[in-house]
Amino acid sequence: MLPEQLKSIAYFQDLDARVLDRIRTRVFEVRLQKGQVLFTEGEPAQAMYVVRSGQVKIFKLSPDGREQVLRIAGPGDCFNEVPIFDEGPNPANAQTVEAAALWGIRRADMRRLVEEHPAIAIGFLKAFAGKLRYFTRKVEDLSFRSVTSRVAKLLLEMAEDDGKGGLRLKQQFTQQEMASVVGTAREMIGRAFKALEKEGAIRLDRHRVVIVSRAALARML
Amino acid sequence: MLPEQLKSIAYFQDLDARVLDRIRTRVFEVRLQKGQVLFTEGEPAQAMYVVRSGQVKIFKLSPDGREQVLRIAGPGDCFNEVPIFDEGPNPANAQTVEAAALWGIRRADMRRLVEEHPAIAIGFLKAFAGKLRYFTRKVEDLSFRSVTSRVAKLLLEMAEDDGKGGLRLKQQFTQQEMASVVGTAREMIGRAFKALEKEGAIRLDRHRVVIVSRAALARML
DNA sequence: TCCGCGGCGAGACTTAGGTCGCAGACCCCC
DNA sequence: GGGGGTCTGCGACCTAAGTCTCGCCGCGGA
Fold it and tell me: Cβ of A142 and B183 within 8 Å?
């Protein structure tokens, strides 16, 4: 593992070489296949993780098996930092959406690093602040917005400029995946697509969503 | 202001007298009447606050005026700490539920204190971890539980042992207040009460909820 | 080539929850 | 003691969203 790679992690950006070196010795590697479960909610927390490649979904499960995705962690993202500071169990489940490579740092190790290097603590605080904003927005969305509006919002977040002025989706989710991100049933996603198509916001090109107009999508919020 | 009072704030618990002294000079006082708005979402953040007495509700507003309460801060609770670390605007609205007295610390002052005293940073990290858990549970509840179940949960949280083996509510909310905590319409609260009454979990003693059995309530989750 | 399986489209139906309207109870304040 | 504002209790109604059940398509493996 190269020290420059550590720099790509937001928490460690501002640290000098000596500290990075110390951290490096504490990092272990994990490789997972598509669909593998990394840990489950409620069990004692072992470590926090950083995604190097691939994608990991962080989600809650209802007693009857429904899934609510809290977020999808991609390269550079961290997850399971919370138990470092309150010694509690894992707050949610983690499972790969596609094959992934991760770095892990054990809870106690990370805790010690934070205590010894205040700069890391500030980094964590910034990151936590962002997450808190994110979750309050999520609560707001669930309680105020209709399913179609939540889907429109998700599509906006997934929209990406394809080289030449057009729009495409960063990745192709299945409808089931979108449903559990947005907190609804699979069938609703299809209906939301049709509603958005009627408004001229998207186009359905045989099983593929094409974003026609960002503005029209934004009007649906 | 007495230095012991500062100790009652979780963030400052582990600090020594010298540091507490420094903090004391930065604290300002605020007194608010019932129903007064302290700040609104989106405007530049001035300060973080600690509740000394009274209650402040932290909430989001929908475009059409519906209210979603994120939490109700009582004595000892802090709010609006997020903007300290990301320089962003206020993440929500704050308004008193009843007359309240607060301490405030300006954003930049608090930021400097945290940077100079790593112990405070750790305190904030613990508190943020707790809040993150709280909000993920809130998301979970909104997406998995029915209104009745959310109401039952709220009542359980509000339940308090009255000296002699019985149960009472910590405070009397109006149905409207409960509705915006739980994320629903006022009428639904009444219906949920009736459902819970039929299950023998509560009793409605003319406009007053009496908890009959904690176990029966828990069964409704 | 054919089969099986995961993902999708679509219609019919059910249901939880939101909306509306109004009336009675209560409470404070004048 | 009267009167307006707030809170509650319904009932009727409406609608968004969840559920169930198909049949189809497309793709990959045997």
Answer: yes
